[in-house]
Backbone:
C-alpha cells in the first residue's frame, strides 16, 4: 500500500466511522478482492488486515492513538520500515493459507465475520452448484440357513426418498453368506444433485439359525450324539454336511465326550476367497441313557463290579496331599 495510507483509507471510511460502516465497507471490498472470486489476493490481505484491526475496539483504540502521534501503523504491512513509517503487526492466529481455509470452511477468521454472507453469489455459489453424490440407502433381507449355504436370489422393492418412486432389483445372495454381511449395489441409492452420481444401495443379510450347524465364518460346527456303547467300543457314523451330502466318521474305541474331528473343505463356501470352503468340525457328545431295562441294569452292574480301574486316581492323589 502507499506509505501515506492508513487502515481507514484502505477501507474508504472516515476515522469516526461506526462499526457498521466499517463492516459494510469490508464486505464490499472483500467481495471484490477475494481470491475465490478471482480478485487480487494482495489487496484482499490489505483489506483483511485493516478490518481485523478496526473491527476490534481495543486494537482500534491503540491504532488511533498511534495515528495521533503522526505514525502510519500498518504502512508497508511490516515492510522494511524507514523514515516516516511505522510497522504495526496484527496477530490473526496463523498464516494466510490457514485463514483462507478457515474462511472457506465458514469459521470466520476475522472477529467472527461470516464470509458465507459475502460469497453466496461467487465462491459460495460455485460450491453450491458442485456435483454431489447421493447418499446411500439401506435395507435388510432375511435368509434361511440353507439359502446362506448354497446361495439364493430375492426380488426386492424399495422407495427412493427424494422422489418417492419405487424401484425393484434382484438381490443375489452369494453362497456362504453370513449373518450381518453387506451387499452393495452401486448407483442404486439416492439421486445426486447438480449432475452428481447416485449413491449405493447397501443390503444387510440376516441369516437364520440352523438346528444342527453353527456358523463360524466359513467354518461350520456341529455336535454329534454318541451312545456310551459307541464311544466305548468304537463305531462308524454317517455325518450330514452343509451341502446336503454325508461323510463317514470312524469313531475310535474309547472316544471321550468333547472330542472334535475336523473335515477340510466340507464347511460353507468362503465369500472372501472365491472357490474355497471352510472346514466342518464335529464334536462328540456322549449320551448316557436315563431309562434302563432290568437286563441292561444287571449287565452294566456286572461290568462295573468287574472293572478294577481307578478312574479318580489323580483326584484322590490331590486330596491326599492336602
Residues:
Amino acid at each position: 500500500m502507499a506509505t501515506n495510507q492508513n487502515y481507514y483509507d484502505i477501507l474508504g471510511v472516515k476515522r469516526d466511522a461506526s462499526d457498521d460502516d466499517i463492516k459494510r465497507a469490508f464486505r464490499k471490498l472483500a467481495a471484490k478482492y477475494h481470491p475465490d472470486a478471482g480478485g487480487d489476493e494482495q489487496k484482499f490481505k490489505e483489506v483483511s488486515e485493516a478490518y481485523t484491526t478496526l473491527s476490534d475496539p481495543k486494537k482500534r483504540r491503540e491504532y488511533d492513538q498511534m495515528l495521533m502521534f503522526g505514525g502510519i501503523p500498518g504502512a508497508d504491512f511490516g515492510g522494511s520500515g524507514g523514515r516516516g513509517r511505522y510497522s504495526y503487526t496484527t496477530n490473526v492466529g496463523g498464516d494466510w493459507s490457514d485463514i483462507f481455509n478457515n474462511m472457506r470452511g465458514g469459521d470466520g477468521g476475522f472477529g467472527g465475520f461470516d464470509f458465507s454472507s459475502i460469497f453466496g453469489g461467487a465462491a459460495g455459489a460455485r460450491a453450491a452448484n458442485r456435483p454431489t453424490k447421493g447418499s446411500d440407502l439401506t435395507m435388510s433381507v432375511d435368509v434361511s440357513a440353507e439359502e446362506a449355504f448354497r446361495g439364493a436370489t430375492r426380488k426386492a422393492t424399495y422407495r427412493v426418498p427424494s422422489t418417492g418412486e419405487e424401484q425393484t432389483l434382484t438381490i443375489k445372495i452369494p453362497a456362504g453368506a453370513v449373518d450381518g454381511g453387506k451387499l452393495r449395489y452401486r448407483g442404486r441409492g439416492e439421486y445426486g444433485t447438480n449432475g452428481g452420481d447416485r449413491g449405493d444401495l447397501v443390503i444387510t443379510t440376516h441369516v437364520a439359525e440352523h438346528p444342527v450347524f453353527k456358523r463360524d465364518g466359513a467354518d461350520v460346527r456341529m455336535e454329534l450324539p454318541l451312545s456310551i456303547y459307541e464311544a466305548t467300543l468304537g463305531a462308524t457314523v454317517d455325518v450330514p454336511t452343509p451341502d446336503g451330502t454325508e461323510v463317514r466318521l470312524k469313531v475310535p474305541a474309547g472316544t471321550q465326550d468333547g472330542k472334535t474331528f475336523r473335515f477340510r473343505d466340507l464347511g460353507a463356501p468362503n465369500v472372501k476367497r472365491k472357490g474355497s470352503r471352510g472346514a466342518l468340525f464335529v464334536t462328540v457328545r456322549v449320551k448316557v441313557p436315563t431309562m434302563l431295562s432290568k437286563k441292561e441294569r444287571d449287565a452294566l452292574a456286572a461290568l462295573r463290579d468287574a472293572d478294577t480301574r481307578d478312574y479318580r486316581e489323580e483326584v484322590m492323589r490331590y486330596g491326599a496331599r492336602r
The radius of gyration is 41 Å. The longest strand covers residues 219-227.
